[in-house]
TrEMBL record:
Protein family membership: Belongs to the EamA transporter family.
Chain ranges of the EamA domain: 14-141, 151-290
Protein name: DMT family transporter
Localization (cell): Cell membrane
Species per Swiss-Prot/TrEMBL record: Streptomyces iakyrus
Matching InterPro entries: Diverse_Substrate_Transporter, EamA_dom, EmrE-like
Transmembrane segments: 12-30, 36-56, 68-86, 92-113, 125-145, 151-170, 182-201, 221-241, 253-270, 276-292
Pfam families: EamA (PF00892)
Primary location recorded for the protein, binned into one broad class: membrane
Recorded topology in the membrane: Multi-pass membrane protein
PANTHER family: EAMA DOMAIN-CONTAINING PROTEIN, OS03G0707200 PROTEIN-RELATED
C-alpha cells in the first residue's frame, strides 16, 4: 500500500472508529439522562429529534418504497421498539460497563441462531468462543462477589436476543430485500417512536413526554442532544459515507470495537468498579466476541442492521447494536 493510499484509508477509518467510540459512550449518556420513570419520554424525544432530518434527507427514496416494503419495515420497527425498550430500561438498572459488554453478545447469538435456521453446524472454534463469552458475562455480572444478576443485566441480555431476532428478520424478509437502507431505517424508527408515544400515554408508564422534557436541566439536554446528533445522525451518515469508500467488512470490524469503548468509558468516566471477578469477565467477553467474529466470518453472509438506539442501517454485518 502506498503512503497516499494508507493515508486515505486512515482518513476513512478514523470517523468510523469515532462512531464506535460514541456508541460505546452511549450507554453512559443514556444512563445519565434517563430514569425508570422517563424511559419512554426520553426515547420519544431522542428519536423525535432525528426523524425530521432523516425524512427530509431521504424523502425522494422514502416515497419510492412500495406497500410490501412499508409493511415489512413496520414489522421490523415493532421489533426495534422492543430492543430500545429493553436496552434503555436495562441501562437504567445496571452499569454502563455491563450494558455495553452484555449487549455485545449479539455477535455470538446471531451466528448461533443462523446456524440453527440453516442447519449448518458452527465450527468448534466458534462454539469455544461462544462459551468463553457466556462465561465472561456470568463473571461480569457478579462484580466483586457472587450474586444473582441484576434486573438490568437480564434486560440487556434480552436486548441482545431481540437484536438477534431483528437481524435475522431483516436478512430473511423478502419484502425488505433490496430496499434503500436509509428509507428502511427511517420507517423503522418512525414506527418505534409511534410505539413509544402511545405507550407513554398509558397510566403507570411514567412521565409524559412533555412533563419529562420540562424537567430536564441543561446537562440532561446536552446528553440527549449527544445521543440524537452524534450517536444516531453522525453514526448513520458516517457509515453511509464510509461503506462507499472502503469494504463493509472493514467498517464492520472497526464498529466491532464498540464493547471495548463501552468498558473504557464505563470504568474511566462512569466510575464503574467491576472488581477482579468482573474485570476477568469483561476481558473474557471481549476476547470471546472478537474470537467469535473471526471464527464466524467465513460462513456469515452480510445482513442489514438498523440504526441504533444509536445507530443506523448500512447493510453491514452486525457490529454490536442496532
Amino acid at each position: 500500500m502506498t503512503v497516499k493510499a494508507a493515508r486515505r484509508a486512515w482518513l476513512t477509518d478514523l470517523p468510523v472508529l469515532l462512531v464506535a467510540v460514541v456508541w460505546g459512550s452511549s450507554y453512559l449518556a443514556a444512563k445519565e439522562v434517563t430514569t425508570a420513570q422517563t424511559v419512554l419520554a426520553v426515547l420519544v424525544l431522542r428519536f423525535g429529534v432525528v426523524l425530521p432530518v432523516l425524512v427530509g434527507t431521504g424523502w425522494r427514496k422514502l416515497r419510492a418504497l412500495d406497500g410490501a416494503q412499508l409493511r415489512g419495515a413496520g414489522v421490523l420497527g415493532l421489533i426495534l421498539s422492543g430492543i430500545f425498550l429493553l436496552e434503555t430500561y436495562g441501562v437504567v438498572h445496571t452499569s454502563a460497563t455491563n450494558a455495553g459488554l452484555i449487549i455485545s453478545l449479539t455477535m455470538i447469538f446471531t451466528p448461533l441462531a443462523e446456524s440453527r435456521i440453516t442447519g449448518r453446524r458452527p465450527s468448534g472454534a466458534f462454539l469455544a468462543a461462544a462459551g468463553l463469552s457466556v462465561l465472561g458475562v456470568l463473571l461480569l455480572t457478579q462484580g466483586a462477589g457472587f450474586t444473582a444478576p441484576s434486573l438490568g443485566d437480564l434486560l440487556m441480555l434480552g436486548a441482545a436476543v431481540a437484536r438477534t431476532v431483528h437481524v435475522l428478520a431483516m436478512s430473511r424478509m423478502r419484502s425488505v430485500q433490496g430496499a434503500d437502507s436509509m428509507s428502511m431505517t427511517t420507517v423503522q424508527l418512525g414506527g418505534a417512536v409511534a410505539v413509544f408515544a402511545v405507550l407513554s400515554t398509558l397510566p403507570g408508564t411514567g412521565s409524559t413526554t412533555w412533563a419529562a422534557a420540562a424537567d430536564l436541566d441543561a446537562g440532561d439536554w446536552l446528553w440527549l442532544i449527544y445521543l440524537s446528533v452524534f450517536c444516531t445522525l453522525f453514526a448513520f451518515f458516517v457509515q453511509m459515507w464510509a461503506v462507499r469508500r472502503t469494504s463493509p467488512s472493514r467498517v464492520s470490524l472497526l464498529l466491532g470495537t464498540e464493547p471495548v469503548w463501552a468498558a473504557v468509558v464505563g470504568v474511566t468516566l462512569a466510575g464503574d468498579r467491576p472488581g477482579w471477578v468482573g474485570l476477568l469477565g469483561a476481558l473474557l467477553v471481549l476476547a470471546g466476541t472478537a474470537w467469535g467474529r473471526s471464527a464466524a466470518a467465513p460462513r456469515q453472509t452480510s445482513v442489514v442492521e438498523p440504526a441504533e438506539p444509536d445507530r443506523a442501517d448500512t447493510g453491514l454485518e452486525p457490529a454490536g447494536r442496532s
